[in-house]
Structure formats: C-alpha cells, structure tokens
Amino acid sequence: MKRCPLFQTRNLKPETRNPKLETFITMPKVSVIIPTYNYASFIAEAVESVLDQTFKDLEIIVVDDGSTDTTRDILKRFEGKITYLYQENQGAPAARNKGIKAAQGKYIGLLDADDFWMPEKLEIQVPILDQEPEVGLVYANVYNINLLQGNQFLGRVSKKGLRGEPFHELLKGNFIPSPSVLVRRACFEKVGLFDENLGRLAAQDWDMWLRIARVYKVAYVDRPLANYRFHDRNMTTDLERIKAGQVYVLDKIFSDSSRKDLPPKSALYYSYIYYHVGEVYYSLGEQNKARENLMKSIRFFPYRWKAYLTLMKSLLGNRVTAYLRR
C-alpha cells in the first residue's frame, strides 16, 4: 500500500494493527473515504466539506485512482489533515475498497470527489448507528446541482426515503444517494467489499446497498445532508453504462438460487430498468432509443400502462411531444 508521507495522518497501518495496542490509542469513530480520478476542479471542496463537519472524531482518506491532472498538488494544502493513497487507475470500486481496507473507524462515510456534505451530516447520522445496532446503513436526502445547465440548483431528491427493510423496494431501483450514506464497518466484513467488476460500469452503489439491505436494517434522515452534482463526466449521464451495470447486478442477484428471500417474478425488476432508461431517453428527445428500451420493458412486464403511454408519445415525434409538454 502506497501512502504519501506528506499527507499521512497516522503511522499505524491496518495490516500491522495490534488489538492490545489499540486499547491505548484513540481511533477515529468515522473514516471518510473519498475516491478521486482527475477531479482537480472538485476535490478541494469535497475535502473541505468533511473538515467543516461539526462532528470531529474522524479521519479522511483520499484514494487517488491514478489521476493525471493536478489533484495531488491541490491536496498538498491539506497536509497533516488527510491520508493520501495512490493506485494505478482501476476504477471507483477498487479505490473505495483500498480506502475501506486502510480505514480505522467504526463507521465508514463515502463521498465522491465531485460531491460535498452539509456541515451537520455526521453529527446527525452517527447517533443513529450508535443507538440502533440493527441498522447497518443510514442515508438521507440530498440537494441536486446540475452543472450541465450552468450550476442549476434542482432541489431535493423527490423520492420518499424508505426505512427498515427496504430490500424488495430497492430491487426496483436505487433510491439511496451515495454521498448521503454512512455505513457500519461491520457491514463490509459481513457482505464483502464493492464489486470491482463494476469499475467501468455504473450501479456499484446499488449493488452494495442491496447486499447490505438483505442482512441489516436501513435508517433514513428526511433532510438534505449532502450535495450531488450532475455533470458531463459522472456516470449518471451515461445511460448505457447505467443500464449495463444494473442488468449485471440483477443477474448476480437472481442467479443465486440458494436465496429464499427473492421474489419469484424477476422479470418485473428487469422491466423497471428498461422502463426508467426509456423514460430518460424520451425526456432527452432521443425517441428511437426511448422506444427500444420501452419495448424491452413491456416484453419483460406487459402490465405497466405508463410504458405504453410514453411509447405512444415517442411515436408522435419531438414536435408533437414538445407541444404536449406545454
């Protein structure tokens, strides 16, 4: 493991930990993992949002996934405040896993380099994990910021947060915003680390939340505790990657015949993927791609009337569609 001495905050490495020694050493309660790849324009704000937390018992681990821009130079201003790890480019799941392996905290916060937290995030979420041992993950609402349209503020995520045991609802699609999450470290020890096969696809978060929701309860804070950016380099703008990643995740889940908690009609959940992708393509005016995905959704599950409605509107063409939206 390569650690940059300029930024190393502790000399105790995870692979040389001594439980007896740790009794006399104050370990951070929260480890915040920030993977980054060529996000020099964002990384400082992400780090500063963690340093500005009202909850202070934490460590920050930045994992540089082979950046070729000025990321490393920018991070020098945080000397003594972060741990900096470098690896050759392997993708976000591998970067997150490297950070988790190096983490010393009881709880793990995940923050992508292009997002940032509200100051009170950890102060609100840490007591929930402290007081509810059956909860493995706590998430919250977020603010959406669209950089594709001039830093446009989009407001809060509209989907209502679900608590308790949301596994079956989560199968319909990911409603847990990644930058809002705080995870009990024991979750990773029980369900494993992020799937590195998803490094060039999307849905690594959804895959992990599903695995955690199978064995732990989930808590939700109904207020925005993080800021999520949409821009031309994050995966939320690449629908084909998103679709491929989501199909991979469902394939993995429904191929596990030993699981007795799975719903019998897997086709329903595949239909959600193609329906949502079709809706987005329709909203973007890409009617051919919209129809292709909506037809696949209908083939998987022919009883969703909204899919037929959007399909019919897509056949009318962009001009008629624009008129109907007035």
Structure description:
The protein has 326 residues and is an alpha/beta fold. It has 2 domains: 221 residues, Alpha-Beta Complex (Spore Coat Polysaccharide Biosynthesis Protein SpsA, Chain A); 61 residues. It has 13 helices and 9 strands. Strands 1, 2, 3, 4, 5, 6, 7, 8 and 9 form a 9-stranded mixed beta sheet that branches. Strand 6 and strand 7 form a beta hairpin. Helix 9 packs antiparallel against helix 10, helix 10 packs antiparallel against helix 11 and helix 11 runs antiparallel to helix 12. The N terminus is likely disordered.
Give the key terms.
326 residues, alpha/beta, Spore Coat Polysaccharide Biosynthesis Protein SpsA, Chain A, 2 domains, 9-stranded mixed β-sheet, 13 helices, 18% strand, globular
Helix and strand composition category: alpha/beta
The structural domain count equals: 2
Q: Which outline best applies?
A: globular
Oligomer: single chain
Low-pLDDT segments: 1-6, 9-17
Radius of gyration, taken over Cα atoms and rounded to an integer in Å: 21 Å
Instruction: Give the helix level as a range of percent.
Output: 25-40%
Biggest sheet details: 9 strands, mixed
Concise structural overview:
With 326 residues, the chain is an alpha/beta fold. The protein has helices at residues 19-22, 43-51, 71-75, 92-102, 121-131, 167-170, 185-191, 204-215, 239-254, 266-283, 287-300, 305-315, 318-324; strands at residues 30-36, 58-64, 83-86, 107-110, 116-117, 135-146, 152-156, 182-184, 217-230.
